[in-house]
Amino acid sequence: MKTIIFTGGGSGGHVMPGLTVLKKINEKKEYEIHYIGGISSIERELVREYELTYHPIHTGKLRRYLSIENAKDILNVFLGLIDAFKVLWKFKSKETLIFSTGGFVCVPVVIAAKLQRKKVFIHEQTSRVGLANKICSIFADKVFISFEDSFKYFDKDKTFFSGYPLREECYNQDIGPVIINGRNLNHESKPILFVTGGGNGAQLINKLIEKNFKALTDKYIIIHQVGKAFINEYSGLNHPDYYPLAFVGREMIDLFKLATVTVSRSGAGTVCELIAIGKKSIYIPLKIAQKNEQFFNALEAHKKLGSIIIEEKELNDEVFLRALEDIGTTNPPFSVLKQNGVDYLSIEIRNVFKN
Fold it and tell me: Which candidate, 57, 48, 49, places its Cα nearest to that of 7?
């Protein structure tokens, strides 16, 4: 059986796109699937529900600045290279593909694969390339990007626009039942405001909602993903049209479709999902994101849909409320040219084993 080895980690943003491709490619059980990740990294937890073999290796963070931690992490990268070399040595070069989605763990895996003459594909999720993927691109056979603006960071001869790998639900108009605390929101006439700072929440955005609570609840039903650390604090804001949630799981896509307005950070996954759905949104990019990548992610949604970007330095109550007024109380899906990366990448992977 042909083997596909996925790698990537350090954050859910690197892991989930790979798992989306993995799920699609494994529908017919045609391949032997493995995953190489960190010993105690988030990817080890996220892949538990999938039918695959997990290989833990040492990982070291790659920094663009001077730090005493660099000495320790250089050693971990070297140990990771040895670990990865041992794992990959078990697999025949012509029958194995390594698919990498970035993060520190992927660097030793990609280098070890190249040394063993195994084929390597990498995928960059954001509009601005991370250091790990920049290094990996040197050794990769093909580089796939989510945003066309990313071509300038890679060798154009081996770089292809695949799009971001998204769940199929992003590409249809169906909306599943959205029931929050027993209330079915699918048939509400009052506009819905969905606010999310990501899985961990964003206190900057949380406080923005709190400060404008009366004005917002007068106008909207508010679904607010506040993050686990803040759920007790925001559960105290009692109002029949306000629903604070620690975390939103499978309902996320349905909420994006159902909401009149979504206010969020602008991680690559969130932006690409909302572009695919075609909803004009309000983005507040994380100021400290690497290379200001969240701003440039949001810029893609602005170009395609007219989504509104509010940088942290410009954020205040007046600017925020004006942005909500600009979007209005009706916000139907907007038709955009759509390419689901999961289909594109699945075809590319299968073609490796046909040639």
Answer: 57
